[in-house]
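Much of what follows relies on a compact textual record of a protein's fold. A complete example follows; check for yourself that the lines match position by position.
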Amino acid sequence: MLYSLFRVDKTLMAVPITIILEIVRPSKFYSISGAPEVIDGLINFRGKVVTVINTGLAFGGNKVLTTEESRVYIFKNNSELTVTDGMELDNEMSPDNIGLHVDYIENVINIEIDELQAVPVNMAHPFYKFVVRKGDDFIIILRPAEIINLNQR
């Protein structure tokens, strides 16, 4: 399966491309009064209201700032997913499109199912699904549905 790689601080993370609707440059975020700090705000994406989550804050690190390199993943909502979209990761996403603001995108790589390894117990995190070693890099495969639904924690 193909995965899109991105960085949160210095950590390499990935999500399956099958659940990505589009990747956009961050634009103006409209703040939401009373929203958790991890929410950058709302954006207008082709007439849809999309909540954007800041990955830096979601992972307890530095806030992702809007730069030339930063991007926003727009994830498919439940009605846009097909039967084969990321099914080994999660069975559903969210009823709404959600955005994930990241520092920068690395590239797209193919990861075979036999390369997926369990997350070590000492680094367990509710957003982590698998760990993959590629060359000298370790890649964290995320549970996008968990990140998207973080407000339900």
In short: DSSP finds two helices and eleven strands in the chain.
